[in-house]
């Protein structure tokens, strides 16, 4: 698969603390890429670089061959939607109001709110299963409900790319699988998804492109069936394991020893 979104030889750092050096990754178009690895290995930092929340000290992050830093903010936000790990909602904001903020990149001085905006918000809320509490304050919701509201906001943005950092956080197991199935459907409809996931078995089941990171570098990437074995899990996670086929999907399933 081709790649419109690419990181090439990037060095990523927070001040003096270097996270990655000469890191390169092509995000396959129309694919579901899952990024896995231990805490602190640079997964979230990579996503932040893709959406230019972190400027590389060296190298380039590019969309269609053009540095993401050169895009006007709204233009980039019409291409890339990003859900961070710990988003913060403004005090007192209600669910529908928060989801509506996903339409901001599509608005202009001549058209502040359109029928298309209304439709996008309504569809996103239904898809994320949050329409029943549309008028409730976000602060009154459970952690899992809030996470689904943030997912709805990202869906309302209607971008060709969805970048999600630990999107299953706070969700119960039912909603974890519903969300991952939704992301797979969006992939099948032509969207490009890249998500940081902690559950390696969920990543193997749902993603068609797996990226394993360790110490700020890509250790392996490809289809889960091609790269996931006991040696990789021991190297990346320092976890002795047995790899067996998932009885439902047939994809690799990691069973800790």
From TrEMBL:
Give the bilayer topology. Answer: Peripheral membrane protein
Ranges where the ABC transporter domain occurs: 5-240
Q: One short Pfam family name for this protein? A: ABC_tran
Gene3D superfamilies named in the record? P-loop containing nucleotide triphosphate hydrolases
Grouped into one coarse class, the protein's main location is membrane
Return one Gene Ontology term, BP aspect: iron ion transport
User: Is Cell wall biogenesis/degradation among the key words of this record?
Assistant: no
| Record's subcellular location | Cell membrane
Q: Which GO terms describe its cellular component?
A: plasma membrane
- Organism in which the protein naturally occurs: Prauserella rugosa
The GO molecular function terms of this record are:
ATP binding; ATP hydrolysis activity
PROSITE patterns (alphabetical): ABC_TRANSPORTER_1, ABC_TRANSPORTER_2
Q: Where is the signal peptide?
A: none
Any idea what this protein is called?
Iron complex transport system ATP-binding protein
Arranged from A to Z, the UniProt key words for this protein are:
ATP-binding, Cell membrane, Ion transport, Iron, Iron transport, Membrane, Nucleotide-binding, Transport
Q: What PANTHER family does its record include?
A: FE(3+) DICITRATE TRANSPORT ATP-BINDING PROTEIN FECE-RELATED, IRON(3+)-HYDROXAMATE IMPORT ATP-BINDING PROTEIN FHUC
